[in-house]
Design brief:
65% of the residues lie in helices and 0% in strands. The longest helix is centred in the N-terminal third of the chain and has 25 residues. The chain has 170 residues and is an all-alpha fold.
Length: 170
């Protein structure tokens, strides 16, 4: 019993506190990234916003060195997972089992193709819940919004001579 309690309590190691610079980077990057996407959405009446992008911003600006926050993972993780959602929506249907299978397939495909991006795991659900989406959803909002966020990350995450982002492209 005490072994189970020890496992549940964790190792007792707390994560290091982020620096003020890191916190400000997250604040500015996340605000600027979503702000630009929202402004384009409003100005040009192009639907670019989807909820998982907020979580993508957390990775891009709060954990930019993580493999999940690299450009290929952000863009292709969202594209692949949204494609899975569209395939299910168009050909398989929407329901609890289909939703679970779609998310599972999206995760497996992201892992297999080495484009894992945890926020993209929600994309099949976004697609299936929204319904009545066309294949153009892959371009707008998915491709357009993720490319915009990556461009903002290129600017924000490279401010300062000691900063270098991304860690890799391919």
């Amino acid at each position: 019993m005490s072994t189970i309690i020890k496992k549940i309590r964790g190792g007792g190691v707390r994560p290091a506190a982020p620096s003020l610079r890191h916190i400000v980077n997250g604040l500015i990057g996340g605000g600027l990234g979503i702000g630009i996407v929202a402004a384009i959405t409003r100005s040009y009446h192009v639907p670019l916003l989807m909820a998982p992008l907020g979580a993508s911003c957390f990775l891009l600006f709060g954990a930019p060195d993580a493999p999940f926050a690299q450009p290929r993972n952000v863009v292709f993780g969202h594209l692949l997972s949204s494609l899975v959602g569209l395939v299910f929506l168009k050909f398989i249907g929407v329901g609890p089992i289909a939703m679970g299978v779609a998310v599972g397939i999206a995760i497996a495909l992201m892992l297999y193709t080495r484009v894992s991006h945890p926020p993209a795991g929600a994309d099949p659900l976004v697609v299936m819940i929204a319904g009545k989406l066309s294949w153009s959803f892959l371009v707008t909002p998915v491709l357009a919004s993720t490319v915009i966020l990556v461009l903002v990350a290129l600017l924000v995450n490279n401010v300062g001579k000691d900063k270098s982002w991304p860690k890799y492209w391919c």
